[in-house]
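Reopening this ticket.

The earlier resolution said the output was attached, but the attachment link was broken on my side. Pasting everything inline this time so it's all in one place.
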Amino acid sequence: MGELFPDEGTGAGAVPETAGEDAPLAFRMRPRTFEEVLGQEALLGADGPVGRAARHGRLPSVVLVGPPGSGKTTLASLLAASLDCRLMRMSAVQAGVADIRRVVEDASRLRGRGGGTVLFLDEIHHFSRTQQDALLPHVESGLITLIGATTENPSFQLTSALLSRVLIWELAPLGETELLELVRRAISEPRGLGGRELTIAPDAARALALGCGGDARTLLNCLEQAAAGLPAGAEIDRVGAEKALAHPRLVHDRAGDLHFQILSALIKSVRGSDPDAGLYWLARLLEGGEDPRVPARRLVILAAEDVGLADPAALPVAVAAYQAAQLVGMPECRLPLAEATVYLSLAPKSNSVYRGYSAAAADVAASLSLPVPVHLRNAVTRRDREQGFGRGYEYAHDDPEGLVSQHHLPKGLEGRAYYQPSPHGGEAALGDRLTRIRERRRATPTPPTAPSPPRPPRPRPQSEPPPAPPRPPGAAGS
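Inline output:
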């Protein structure tokens, strides 16, 4: 169990320990002070929460949310060092409730000697509800200052009880400017590659910065690989940088927030009639390893919701693209999906069917089970016919225009107009026809509900004696 809780001491000892030249470059270049941290101005600026915590000497329990390589572990170490606290580390992937008990026992002993404990819990989203509940009272009492780290949305992964007791600090992926500065530091500083007097071509540095997906650790690992085997004073060129990257890292987590953000960007771009942006976000999904059926399903929904009857061909195009994704898979299905994306982007837009259904559904929820009008009921049995089912029904094909004037909504909802066609695309012609139909229907009075015929006499139970015959005139007792 000891390996889960390395004691990094207190104060300056909580800063990442000194590493020899054989340690990975990413470890050697880890920031030693807040001033060395790149990016994260919102957190580390003069008015940021980290600066306030350092000035006041009190750190609240926090959850650091950010992509890989954005500095969550480094920031936790620096925070613990700035407050002269012992930093204990756990991985939520490996740890359990028994491990939490051990942390609590160690923290209690340390508090008795006047020291504080910061628990850095990496991948905190892997903690179950039971594990989070075991940690909760000790975070609430202040025995443990929790610093959690996660790449996932904590609102979905953490319990509401734990969320109410921590602050959420978000770290952004490093931008190109910060990553290029990191390359410069790694090349020039003695703890990096400075002792070898290497240089790097500007286009090689930019290739590394763009290919690492905002991940500082990936950048430094690729830089170290590109420099491997080069003699002192050599230059890292673009070819060497691209070989080190091998496969440029496209950030896409099929279960995380970014997955849904890119899907949202795809749909909103197509809805906004921007085929270029639609193709870009589609490529981000597919080239990042997304199952092609996922965006295909979204395009089918969009075809009905956002294009609708303004272009009735949109839905068959989207369905065909989905079927192609199922039949041929990647990489061939990229073209059918791209074709559907462009077609739907340029199609006229209408959400009238969506609005119409929503309005009808609202009436269904409000009125619950209104009876079907009698003239619309099918008269299947003799009893149905005796009840008047189907009486007065108008058959559309008997009319020269193929139209009927009768009403079809339940009593109390007559005259409702759920579908309001847009003037876009082919729906304009549908709107003209619908106007004529509704005018004709409005001119027809609402028929009264068909009365039910009188019920037949109640059958007499066999146990009941028959009625006495009528008496003849003049009989006794008359």
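Reporter confirms the inline version is readable. The beta strands are 62-65, 86-91, 117-122, 145-150, 167-170, 199-200, 235-236. The chain has 20 helices and seven strands.
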